Every structure is written in C-alpha cells, then in structure tokens.
Amino acid sequence: MSADGTILVTGGSRGIGAATATLLADQGHHVVIVDIAPEPLVGTNAILWPAPFDVASEAAVVAGIADIEQAHGPITGLVNAAGVFGKMHTIDRVRMEQWDREVNIDLRGTFLVARSVGIGMAKRRHGAIVNVASVAGMTSGPIHAYTAAKAGVIQITQTLAAEWGRTGVRVNAVSPGFTRTAALEAGIASGALNKDLLASPTAMNRLVEPMEVAQAIAWLLSPRSSGVTGINLPVDAGYIAGTTWAAYGGLPEAPRS
Ligand SMILES: NC(=O)c1ccc[n+]([C@@H]2O[C@H](COP(=O)([O-])OP(=O)(O)OC[C@H]3O[C@@H](n4cnc5c(N)ncnc54)[C@H](O)[C@@H]3O)[C@@H](O)[C@H]2O)c1
User: Fold this and answer.
1) What SS3 class is residue 58?
2) Which residues lie across from 235 on neighbouring strands?
3) Percent of the chain with pLDDT over 70
C-alpha cells in the first residue's frame, strides 16, 4: 500500500473510470477498481476487485467496502464513476423501470458508496471524494431520469462536502460533457447519436477525451486542490459556455492563421 492509502474507483473497468484508474496508478497511487462487470485494465498497476460490485445495492456496497478495506487498508480517495446513460424518450414513453434503474445506479449508487467510504474517512479526518456528475445535470434534455439523477449528484456533493467539511474530508464533482468513451462511440456508430451535433454546440467544437476528465478528477483528489470542496467542475470543452450561442446565430469560426 502506498503512503497515502488506497484510492477506490467505481465503474473502473471502462470509460472515464478506467482512464482515471490508469492515470492514478501511473502517478504511483495504490488504486483498486470495482465494477458490476469487472474486467482488468491492461498495462496498469490498478488492482481489480474481482467480485462483481453493484453500487445500487446497499448490502453489497456495505459488505464490499468492508472487505476492500480489510484487504487493502483504509480508502483515502474515492472516485464514483460507475453509471449508466439515460435512455432518450418522449415523456409519454418513459418507462418507470428505466427511470428507477438510472436513478438507482447514478444517484442512489453514488450516495451509497460515498456514505460507506466517507464515514470512515471522516472518523480518520482524512480523505477526498470525487463524484462523476454530468453537464446533463445542469441542463435539460429528453433523458428525464438521467438529468434528474445527475442534478441530484451535484446537490448531494454539496451536502456531503458540508457534512464532512469540519473533518477535512473534501467532496467534489466533475461534470463531463460528451466524452469519447467506447459507450459513446458505440452510440455514434449505431446512428443513435450524431458526432457533429454533439460537438458543434461546444465552444471548442469537439468531444471531451476520457483522460481529460481523469486529469480533473486526479487534481480534485490531490492536495493541490486542498482548498476546494463542494464544487461541480464542468470538463465539457465549453458545452455550457457555447450552447446558448445558437440563439444569436451560432459560434464564431476561428480566424484563419
Ligand atoms: N461518456 C460521456 O459522454 C459522459 C458524459 C457525462 C457524464 N458521464 C458519466 O460518467 C460516468 C462514467 O461513464 P462512462 O462514459 O465512462 O461509461 P462506461 O459505460 O464506459 O463506464 C461505466 C462503468 O460503470 C459500470 N457500471 C454500470 N452500472 C454499475 C453498477 N450498478 N455498479 C457498478 N458498476 C457499474 C459499467 O460496467 C462500466 O464499466 C457515468 O456516471 C456517466 O453518467 C459520461
């Protein structure tokens, strides 16, 4: 175990969680990843917790965190990256089973893991948590449960930051814009998503790379952000900044160099 303890990354087998676990392990941290569909990360020292870990199950989370701390020592950093995307529907076609699935994994799961890990951090007066929210939680879209769940993640981040602030434990969120994970690429390949429509409203006219989100998470976990708690940091290539420009005729092109 490294001197600064164990960093746990949920949803660490794929996408943003995998990029974050890889970066943190490359930085020399002792990283453990959990996932509902656990797969090792090739080419990194991040350690796979081999049993499937469902963030939405209270019993599984409580037992799983106890087992992980027994095996790897106290968790001093937590990245809540496990999540599922919202299914796009008109309001009359929103199925409540789908609503429950998205809210249970994205919001309830984030809270359950943060609570199970954070209470121990608060007792030890040491630790940092980063929740992966989304720009979808700051805007509207035809993904009713997902936007509500992610807004809830941003809110619960503030509540936990206030709850544990006096102990020195910090809790922050990042809100990725459309990020080029395998899951998003599959959506583009299937035709369900259009790359140009995802990129063009952003100030930078592009998608976000998983490693760019990982870099922001690593900063929020590190002592370099020691004065920061309760924030929600968009990592969105300027999606929030650029999206309203459509009302004024669109974003300007870069001048020819
Ligand atoms: N990719 C994007 O464009 C984007 C944008 C904004 C926010 N996000 C958020 O980032 C997070 C990671 O998304 P991603 O794009 O890397 O997706 P991904 O599908 O590549 O990775 C998500 C991981 O979470 C795991 N997972 C799913 N349900 C789980 C559960 N119940 N318990 C434990 N693990 C579970 C999956 O197996 C997978 O490995 C999610 O919260 C997502 O909402 C993604």
Assistant:
1) helix
2) 176
3) 99
Spatial contact of 135 and 121, defined as CB atoms under 8 Å apart: no
- Helix H or strand E encompassing 76: strand 75-80
CA distance 178 to 198: 7
Q: Which two tokens stand for residue 85?
A: 């995307």
Q: In a 10 Å sphere around its CB, with 0-12 CB exposed, 13-18 middle and 19+ buried, how is residue 103 labelled?
A: middle
Structural domains in the chain plus CATH codes: 6-248 (3.40.50.720)
What mean pLDDT is reported for the chain?
97
Measured on CA atoms in the order 226, 13, 30, 152, is the torsion positive or negative? positive
Pocket test for ligand 1, best of 14, 108, 154 (most atoms within 8 A of CB): 14
Q: Give the tens place of pLDDT for each residue, 169-202.
A: 999 999 999 999 999 999 899 998 999 999 999 9
Extended beta strands in 113-163, E state: 128-132
User: Does residue 1 carry a pLDDT above 70?
Assistant: no
Q: What is the distance between the alpha carbons of residues 58 and 156, in angstroms, rounded to a whole number?
A: 17
Hey, which residues are catalytic here? 146
Best CA proximity match to 216, nearest among 181, 174, 179:
174
Beta bridge partners of 170: 128
Residue 82 CA to ligand 1 centre (angstroms): 5
Our answer on whether the CB atom of 55 is closer than 6 Å to any ligand 1 atom is: yes
Q: Starting from the edge strand earliest in sequence, which strands make up the sheet with 75-80, in order?
A: 47-48, 30-34, 6-10, 75-80, 128-132, 170-176, 232-235
Q: What is the C-alpha separation between 214 and 9, in angstroms, rounded?
A: 11
Q: Is the CB of 130 under 6 A from ligand 1?
A: no
d(CA 10, CA 15): 11
